[in-house]
Design brief:
Number of domains: 2
Low-confidence stretches: 142-149
CATH architecture of the largest domain: 3-Layer(aba) Sandwich
Helix content: 40-55%
Shape: elongated
Structural class: alpha/beta
CATH topology of the largest domain: Rossmann fold
Strand order of the largest sheet: 2-1-3-4-5-6
Number of strands: 6
Radius of gyration: 20 Å
CATH class of the largest domain: Alpha Beta
Length: 215
């Protein structure tokens, strides 16, 4: 009986705990073999090519070069490499952008090891895989093919405040900059988060960047 070759898995994530956890999971599986790891996208792209990996577990939220850019680049250079996105953010706009970049599956980082192993198996076999949380987000905001709902537009004042939030300015600093009260700044901030359906400033920054809301 011919033994089936192990699936080569590469990991790109900027958190050491995540890298170590995934490495241990892969090394404990007879069906998988670790092809390599990288803690940033730029280094990861070249190393994936050198490793001849079958599948890439790719973090979306990374500094300097995010997972969407990495996914797009790898799919152009190495179209046969399967990619599963790893994320804690299940916003429709981010999922849509990642899907358009070529991702084959989406897993939330708090998923169990059995689900991740099953997802890898499904994707390697040519199927797509989505965590339950991702499916719910897709059903609310877009179809599985990536047709997103219309993103709300920000008013001139909301754009001004959003830009300053992205510059890491405090409520007090924004109020002084725009000659308005701190209460008014907070009201605008809450309205912006609610309008864009994000929970915090980190989500706001990603939503703005992905959808070019300030351009």
């Amino acid at each position: 009986m011919i033994q089936q070759e192990a699936t080569l898995v590469f990991i790109i994530d900027d958190h050491r705990l995540v890298l170590d956890g995934l490495r241990m999971l892969i090394e404990s599986s007879d069906a998988l073999e670790l092809a390599g790891m990288a803690d940033n996208g730029k280094e990861g792209i070249q190393r994936v090519a050198d490793s001849k990996a079958d599948i890439l577990l790719l973090d979306i939220e990374m500094p300097h070069m995010n997972g969407i850019e990495v996914c797009k680049t790898i799919k152009i250079k190495l179209p046969d490499v399967k990619i599963i996105a790893l994320t804690m953010l299940v916003q429709p706009s981010i999922i849509s952008a990642m899907k358009k970049a070529g991702a084959d599956g989406f897993i939330v980082k708090n998923t169990g090891s059995k689900e991740l192993l099953f997802a890898i198996q499904q994707v390697i076999q040519g199927e797509e895989y989505y965590s339950a949380e991702v499916k719910i987000s897709l059903e609310k905001g877009l179809t599985i093919q990536g047709t997103s709902q219309q993103i709300p537009q920000l008013s001139r004042r909301e754009k001004e405040i959003t830009k300053l939030i992205m510059e890491s300015m405090s409520t007090k600093e924004i109020a002084a900059q725009l000659f308005i009260s701190e209460g008014t700044v907070e009201t605008h901030r809450k309205n912006i988060l609610r309008k864009l359906n994000v929970k915090n400033s980190a989500g706001l920054v990603k939503m703005v960047m992905e959808n070019r809301l300030l351009s």
